Amino acid sequence: MTHSRSCEGYVPLALRFLFFSIVLLAGLYPAAGYAAVQGSTGPDTTGSVDLTYVQGLNVRINGLSDMPLGVWGGSGALAANDNICIGRTGVPLFSSAGTYRILASGDGEPGDPAAFTLSNGPSQMNYRAFFNDQTGTTGRQELTAGVALTNQNSFGLFYFFNMIFTCGAENANISIEVPEAQLSGAGGVYTGTLSLMLIPE
Amino acid sequence: MRPKLGHAIRQVALGGVLAAVATGGFAATQGTTGFTSSGDLDISLTVNDEVKISNLVDINLPPFGGTDVTGTSDACIYRNGGGDYLITATGSGAANAFQLTDGTNSVNYSVNYDDGTGSSSLASGVALSRTNAAEDDDDCVTFGADNATIDVTVAAADASALPAAVYSGTLTLLVAPN
User: What range does the domain containing B104 cover?
Assistant: First the structure.
C-alpha cells in the first residue's frame, strides 16, 4: 500500500513539471516577434515601436472615354482619339526618369484572342490602335494587340497629379482608326471594347 | 436649421443622382491604383446598308431588221457585305410603262434582268429579288467584271408597225437591300 501511494505521488509531479515548461515556452516564444518596446513603471516611462513602410511601384490609368465613331458616310476611314491620364509613382516631380508600358487588347478573333475587332454579331471588322505618351496624335505609335508597347514616358509632375487627382494632367493619347477597306462590310452597328493595361517599368 | 440642412443635403444628393444619370452614357472603365492599372473604353460605329448600281450604258437599239430588236447594258450591283437585293424597273411611259415614243406614237418594250444566275423578266414597278451583289467593290473594278445584265426588247410585231421616227424613253432601275 505504501509503495502504491508513493507511485501515485510521483506521476502528478512529472505532469506538473511538463505543464510548467509548456506555459513558460508559450509565454516566451511570442514575445520574440514583438519589436515594440514597452514602458516600465516609474516616474516617467518610455516605449517605442518600429515603423515599416513598403512603397511599391503604383500606376493608374484614367480619363478614358468611349469612342463613338458615328455613322460611316460611305467613303474614307473613321478615326477617333482621346487624351488620357497616366499616373506613376517613384518618379521625382521634375524628372522624366520613370517609364511604363501599355498593353492593349481588343475583343479578338479566331486565332488572335486580343485582336482589335468590332462586331455587329455575324460580321466583324478590324481597327488599328495607337498610343502616344503625350497628348495629341503627333508621334503616336501603333499598338500590336496583346503586345506591350515599352519605354513610354512622361514627366514626374504629371505622374504625380494623375496619382493624386482622378485625371489631373492629361499626358497620353489613345487613338483608333477603322480603315475604309474594313468599312464596306455588311451594314449594322459595330461595337467593341479596347482594354488598356498600364505596367510600370 | 435641421430641416433646412436636411433639405440641402437632399438637394445635393439629388444633384449627384442627376449628374450620375447625365453621365450614364460613359461606359468607359477607369483604372485603379496598383502595380498595374487597367481601363476599358467602348468603340461603336454604324455602317448603313448601302447599295449602288453603276456602269450602266445607254442602249441604242439597232434598226428593225425583221426580227425582235434587242439591246443590252451591263451593270454593277454593289451591296456592302454582299448578299441579296431587290431591283425594280420603271419605264417612262404612261403609268411607268416600258414604252418608247417619238412624241406621237409609242411602242412597248420588255425588260429582262440577269444577275448572273439566270435571266428573269421584269414587270414595271414590281421588285425582283436577286443575289450576287458585289461586296467590297462598289464599281466592280476589283471584282473583275460587271455582275448584271439588262436586256430590252422591242418585239418584231410592234416594231414592224411603227412609222419611221426616232423613238426614245428612259428605263429607271431602283436597287434596294433585301
Answer: 51-177
